[in-house]
Amino acid sequence: MNAFSAPGLATIPAHLRFLDEIAARWTAGVEEDPERIGDGTLVLPGRRAARALTEAFLRQADGRAILLPRIIPIGGLDEAETALASPDALLLPPAVPPMRRLAILTRLVLQAETAFGTRPMLDQAWPLARALADLMDEAERSGIDLAETLPDAVDENFATHWQATLRFLSIITRVWPDWLREEGMMNPVARQIALLDAQANYWAHQVDGTARLWAVGFTDALPSTVNALRGVLLHPHGRLIVPGLDREMDDETFATLPDGHPQAGLSRLLASLDSRRDDVETWASVLSDDENRSVLAARTHTIARALLPAAALSDWAANSERGECAGLYRLASADQQEEAAAIALILRAGIEQKNKRVALVTPDRALAGRVAAELARWGILADDSAGELLITTPAAVLLRLLAQAVDQNLAPVALLALLKHPLVACGMSSGTARASARLLERRLLRGPAPAPGIEGLRRHLEEKQKMEGASLDGASADRPDEPQPLDLFLTAIERCLAPALESAREERTLPEQLTALLKAAEALTTTDDTPGAEKLWRGEDGNALGRRFSDLLTATDVLPPQPWAVLDGLLAAVFTEERVQSRRALRGRGETTITLHPRVFIWGLTEARLQTVDLMVLGGLVEGVWPPATDPGPWLSRPMRARVGLPSPEQAIGQAAHDFASCLSSAAEIVLSTPGRREGAPAVPARWLVRLDAFLAGRGQQLVEHPAQSWLSQIDRPVGAAQPVVAPEPRPAVNKRPRRLSVTEIETWMRDPYAIYAKHVLNLRPLDPLEQSVDASDYGMLVHGALDAWFQKHGAEWPRDPETSLRKAFLDSLDAASLRPALASWWRPRLLRIADWVAQAEAGRRQSASPRAILTEAKGRATIADTPGGPFTLTGRADRIDLFDDGKMALLDYKTGTVPSTKEVIAGWSPQLPLEAAMLTLGAFPEATKHFSTDESSNSEVGELIYWRLTGGAEPGSETVVKSKEISLAELAQQAWESLRQRVIAYDSKAQPYLSHPHPGKPPRFADYAQLARVTEWSTAREEGGE
Fold first, then answer.
1. Is there a shared CATH topology between the 3-91+192-290 domain and the 316-384+589-716 domain?
2. Reduced to 3 states, what is the DSSP secondary structure of residue 635?
3. What is the pLDDT of residue 29?
4. Within 10 Å of residue 701's Cβ, how many Cβ atoms?
5. Mean pLDDT along residues 277-305
6. Which CATH superfamily is domain 3-91+192-290 in?
7. pTM of the model
8. Which residues form the PD-(D/E)XK endonuclease-like domain (predicted)?
9. pLDDT band at 119 (very low <50, low <70, confident <90, very high)
C-alpha cells in the first residue's frame, strides 16, 4: 500500500521524528517518479512548523536538488488561489487594518467613560481596546457569536460590576459591527475563517484532483481549523496526520479527558471530526537511521502512564512495571541565574560531539535571555527563534525616552537617560556627544534640579559660571573625546528637540504629536556624517519599528487631540504587541560579523512543536511559567465564559502539557530544569514533574540528577587551594599625601583614613544625586544661616525683643531658600520653635556673664611645623566663639543631627571642638585675637566647649557641655593637638597605609567612599575568616 493511499486519518508515534517521517513518507510515495515530489500541498499549523518541514525535506534529499511540494501554514493560504477556486471569496470585504481597528476601538473606549465612572486617558484606553480585539478574535476562532451569547452570560446572581462590564462590551457586540458595515470591512480573523471555509469547500469538491493534500501536525480542534481539516479529508488524496496519538489509554478515559491533559486536544479534534481512535492508522517509521527509537518508545510509554488523568490512576496500582527513563535527567538550581548558567553548560557540552544538535525549550523569555548571555561567554550565539520584543530594541527605547524627557520638561533623570542613549549624537560625533552629556551631568544636572526646560538649564549654567568660573571641571575624564562647551551643547539639544517641545505645549492630534516626535528623534540621532533616519530605521529591528510607527501614524487620525503625556504609554502599548527577529547581535565591532551557531537553538513552546534534536533542555518548569497561570481574561469570569461558550482557560494548560510530553519524546537526552526560587519567591515545580516523581517513587525509582551543577561549582572553584587576599592598603608617596586638612576631616582621618586618601590623593569626590531633594544638610544650613545672620546683626548686644527678632531671622532664612511650599510649611514651625529655644537659652547664658564679643563662622588656621613631611596646616570654621572680659572664651557648635557624646569627645574620637580650642589658644583665629590686648591674649583660655542640638521637634533644642573630672579643657585641647601631631608624623612615613574603617565599632558618620573601598565585601570576608 502506498503511503498516500492509506486511510485519511493517521498518526505518527510520539517517539518518532515527526517531520522527518512526513518528508520520508511523502518522498517514498513517488519513488518511481521523483519529479512528482513537488506535486501537492502540505498544510501545517504554523509558520515555524512549515519552515521545519522544509528543512526535513532538505535533510531527506541529502544534498540532492529537489523540487519541494507546496508547504504552507494554515493561516497563510493564498487568497488569489482561493478566489480562483471559489468566486465567493472575491466578494469578501477587505479586512480592517489591525492598527486602524485598535485606533477605532480606542476611540469607542474613550467615549464609553460612563461604564467605568471615570474617563480613561488614551494610553489606558489603548490596552483596553487591545483586550477587546483579543476577545473578538477568540470568539470568532471558536465559532461564537458574542451578540447572541453575551446577554446570557450574566444573571441576577452576578455582582453589579459584571453587569457594567457587559454593558461596556456592547462596543464589540453592537457598535463595532455597525462600524464595520458602514466601512465595508471585516475583522481580520473573520475574514481568514471565511477564506479557510472557501478553501475547505474547494478541497472537498476537487473530485478529480491528482495531487496529494496532507494536513500534518494539528493537535487541537478550533472550529475554523476543523472545517478546513474536513475539507482535506474529503479531498481524493487528502490525509490528516496527527502527532503522538495515545493508543494505549482506554476509550472511556480518552473520550472524557480533562482540558488540562496532554491528549485532550487530540480527543476534541477526533470528536469534532466525528472520528474515533480506531479510525486512525498508526504509521510505522520509514526511516532506518534512528538508533534511539526503542529508548524513546519506552520513555513515551512511561510518560503517558505517569500523566494519566485522576480517573485512571488505578492503572498505577494495577501495573507495577518499572518506568523507563533512560536519557532523562533532572536539574535543580537555586535560582534563575544558576539555572541559566547550568543550562548553558549543558548546551555547551552537548555540541562537543560532532553534528549533535542541542536546544533549550522554555516559555520563560527571561531565562532564554540569561542562557543566551551565558552562551556568549564561550562565543556561542544561539538561534533564539522567538526574537525580541520590539519595545526593547534601541530605536524603540529612544522614542520612549524622548517622549518621557519632553513630557517631564527636561528633568535631569529623563534628560540624561535620553542623552546617554547610544544612538543620540545631536549632529556631532557620537564620542563628542557622550562626552558633552557627561559634562552636562557633572556641571548642571547633579544636585538640586534646575528650573524646567532649556531656559532653566541656561540660567543654571549662568549661575554656575558666575560662582565657579568657566572651567570644565572633570572634562578630562572623557578623553580622547573632548566635549562641546556647554552653551553650544545646550543649543544643539534645543535645536534637536524644538519640534517636540513646541508640539508638547498643547493638545494636538496624534499624527501631529507623533510627527513631532519623529522629527526630534531623527535630529537627535544625526551625527556629523550620517543622517538620523539611516541610524534610526536600519536593520530588521529598525524596519519593523518603521512599519509599526508608520501604521500608528496613519491609523490614529480618528482619535481626538491628545496631550503629549499620553505618548509614552501609547508607544509602550503598541511596541509590546510585536516581536522582531533582530540581527543586531550578529554585528561585531568594525567590519566583523558574528554568525549564529548552526547546532544551538533556543525555542519557545510554539517554535519547539514538531521539532527534534539530540539533546533538549526543558527550562523553567515551574507553576505559573510552564504550565502558565490560568487566566480567564479581563472581561469574563470562568462561569461567564462557560455560558458564552468560549474555551476554558485550562485548554491552555492542556496545550502546554502536550508540548511537555512531546518534548520528552523529541530527543535522546532530555534535561528537566527547575529553579528553587524565581523572582525572589519560592517556585513550585510543574505539576507534571510532581506526577512523574510520584510515579517513579512508587516503583522505587527517581530521575538521575544531571552533573551540570557539579560542573558549575568546578568552574567557579579556583585551581588549587584558595588563597586569602589581603584587603588593599594604599601607601602613596609622602609627597602625595595631604598637607592641609580641616578640623572636621580629622575625625574622618581617625575613623576612615581611606576616605582622606580617596579625596585628597586620588582627588575623587562623590557626585551629588540627580534631582537631589532637600534633606537634613539643607535644614542644618538654614539653622546655621539664621543664627549667623542674627549674631552678625546684634553681636553681643541683647535686643529688647529677642524672640521676635530671632523668629524673623529664621523665617528670612527659610524664605531665601525658595523651598517647595509643602516642605517650607513643614519646616516653618520647627524653625520657630528653635528660635524660641535659642532666645531662652541665650538669656540664661547671659545671666551669669555677658560676652564682650560674639564671633560667628570665624575662620582659623594653624600650622604644625616640626613634622617629617614638612609643615601641616589645620583649618577650621567655628560656628560661634564667645569672648568674655576675664579672658575666658567659649566655643559653641550647632548640630541639627546627632551630637557626639562627651565620652567620645574626651576619648578623642570626636576632636573637632578640642582642636578648635587648641587653635583658639594658639591664636589661630585672628578675629578673636584682635578683641584682646597682648596681656589679655596671653592670659586667655577656653572655658567652655558646648554643643547645641537644634531640631525643632518636641524638644526644640538641648545643650551639651563638654566637661570631665579627670581632665581640664586646656589639657583636653593640648591632648587633641598632640594626638594630631603624632598622626601627621605617622602618616609622613611611606609604611603607613590609609586603611578603610580600621576600628570596628567606630565607623565614620558619613561613608562617602565605602563603595569604592568595598567595605561590605571586606567586612564579610573578615567575618567569614573569624577575624
1. yes
2. coil
3. 81
4. 15
5. 87
6. P-loop containing nucleotide triphosphate hydrolases (3.40.50.300)
7. 0.86
8. 740-990
9. confident
Question: What does residue 68 show for φ and ψ, rounded to 5 degrees?
Answer: -75, 150
74 within 8 A of 189, measured Cβ to Cβ = no
543 phi-psi bin (left φ>0, alpha ψ -120 to 50, beta other): alpha
At residue 3, the pLDDT reads: 40
Q: 434 by DSSP, 3-state: which?
A: helix
Ramachandran region, residue 413 (left: φ > 0; alpha: ψ -120 to 50; beta: rest): alpha
pLDDT at 717: 76
Over residues 367-380, the pLDDT tens digits come to 999 999 999 888 89
d(CA 189, CA 820): 55
Residue pLDDT, tens place only, 800-839: 899 999 999 999 999 988 777 888 899 999 999 999 999 9
HEC sequence for 928-993? HHCCCCHHHHHHCEEEEEEEEEECCCCCCEEEEECCCCCCCHHHHHHHHHHHHHHHHHHHCCCCCC
Tell me, what's the pLDDT at 583?
62
Residue 588 has a pLDDT of 45
Q: Are 609 and 638 in contact (CB under 8 A)?
A: no
Closest to 920 measured CA to CA, from 964, 884, 949: 884
123 vs 318, higher pLDDT: 123
Task: Please say whether the structural domain 316-384+589-716 has been given the CATH code 3.30.70.890.
Answer: no
- 158 confidence band (pLDDT: 50, 70, 90): low
Tell me whether residue 118 is exposed, middle or buried, using C-beta atoms within 10 angstroms of its C-beta: 0 to 12, 13 to 18, 19 or more.
Answer: exposed
Amino acid 93 reads: P
Give the model's confidence band at 763: pLDDT under 50 very low, under 70 low, under 90 confident, else very high: very high
Domain spans of the chain, in order of start: 3-91+192-290, 98-185, 316-384+589-716, 390-580, 731-772+851-1027, 793-848
Q: If you search the block for the grid coordinates 532506518, which residue do you land on? A: 288
329, 674 in Cβ contact below 8 A? Answer: no
What's the CATH number of domain 731-772+851-1027, 3.40.50, 3.90.320, 3.30.420, 1.20.140? 3.90.320
**Positive/negative CA dihedral, 755, 756, 761, 763:** positive
CA dihedral 419, 422, 426, 431 (to 10 degrees): 110
| Start-to-end Cα distance in the chain | 83
β-bridge partners, 669: 615
Q: Which run of H or E residues covers position 60?
A: helix 47-61
Question: What is the pLDDT averaged over residues 452-456?
Answer: 93
Q: Distance of alpha carbon 5 from its chain centroid, rounded? A: 55
Choice between 199 and 564, residue whose per-residue pLDDT is larger: 564
